[in-house]
Amino acid sequence: MARSLQDPRLSFYCEQYDHIAHRMNHYVLQFYFEDRTVEIREVTKNRLHLKRAHFPHLNRDDFKVGSSLSLLGGVIKLTAYADEVTRELCGERGEVTAVMFGEQLLPQLGRCLAVLTEECGFVALEMQMAWLPVETAAAYGVPPDLVEGRIVVVKCANTNALQRGIDFMARMPGARAAESVEEVGRWEQIVEKAKEQPVAILGDPNSTVVIIKPHALQKLAGGVIVQQLIDAGLEISGISLTNMTSQQANELLKPYKGVLPDFPDTMRSLMGTVWVLQFVSLDEGVDVVSVAREVCGPFDPVIAKELRPTSIRARFGVDRAHNAVHCCDLHEEGPLYSNFFFRPEDVDE
């Protein structure tokens, strides 16, 4: 998948109907626009379906979500962007800015994100929680009133993003938005530093992780879901926007193989942009895993609507695979999921 704006390729999820097997096959397509070559891999097993080949008739403008491409006598439909870089390269994002929320806004973080994405129309490209020493915070241009404590930085895009970010500050007192391209660049460095040194708590047996799935984010439900979990009394201790690959989804769900009858669909439902949230509790008597599981609701949205109609899956779930969120079912999964998403690469097991 495309890793940066300098990466000369576009990545899309796509599908093609197999008229012999009478089924829809799902792939990830890479288009290298500098030499007009295409490579296609299977979504589930990452096996090579089409070795990188030259298609001189294809242009960068041909690649848009919803487009159908004629390749090797067949038709492939592009169904979704496979990463946020591709979406940005395709020109749907416009200008980039960064916004910052301090410790005092963390109890309202979901509402902040809902206003940012739902009401103001921003699309989150990167999101990390960080804690910086005073001297480091000053070097990165963190506002003085946000230096003490944790901060959440969101790199996001919109048309006329810098001005709209400033307008967002007026709607969300306490939030900060970059006021120049240079400031955006400094705050982006905070995001990268947070990836290297996550603030999430590792090894806490009374912690849980909730993953907001791509389809729920496409519905702009991310902020509402975050706030519903916070309002249940949970303390957010880590947050990250991640582009989940098929390999990562398969590894994460490995314990469910042979257990979930719709395992392939469930795995695919996690592929793409997800928000990963770690929660703990300041009250030692609170069972964090149980509280989060109750807020998320039963796995099947149909059952959730009957038993817990106000739960996240009842409100935003579509079917068993696209059930809005994935959360820890067992207490031992909290530390495991935290290590999976938040453990720095240079930390030994």
Short recap of the structure:
The protein contains 13 helices and 14 strands. By secondary structure, it is an alpha+beta fold. α2 runs antiparallel to α7.
Main sheet overview: 6 strands, antiparallel
The chain-level mean pLDDT equals: 88
How many beta-strand runs? 14
Which percent range fits the helix content? 25-40%
Shape: globular
Write down the oligomeric state.
Answer: single chain
Low-confidence stretches: 2-6
**Radius of gyration, taken over Cα atoms and rounded to an integer in Å:** 21 Å
- Report the CATH C-level class of the largest domain: Alpha Beta
Termini separation comes to 27 Å
Specify the structural class: alpha+beta
Name the beta content range.
25-35%
Draw up the topology in text.
Blueprint: E1 9-18, E2 23-32, E3 37-42, E4 48-54, E5 68-71, E6 74-81, H1 84-89, E7 95-101, H2 109-119, E8 123-130, H3 134-139, E9 151-158, H4 161-171, E10 176-177, H5 181-196, E11 208-212, H6 214-218, H7 222-231, E12 235-244, H8 246-252, H9 263-269, E13 272-280, H10 288-296, H11 301-307, H12 312-316, E14 325-327, H13 333-342
Antiparallel strand pairs: 1-2, 1-6, 2-3, 3-4, 5-6, 7-9, 7-10, 8-9, 11-13, 11-14, 12-13
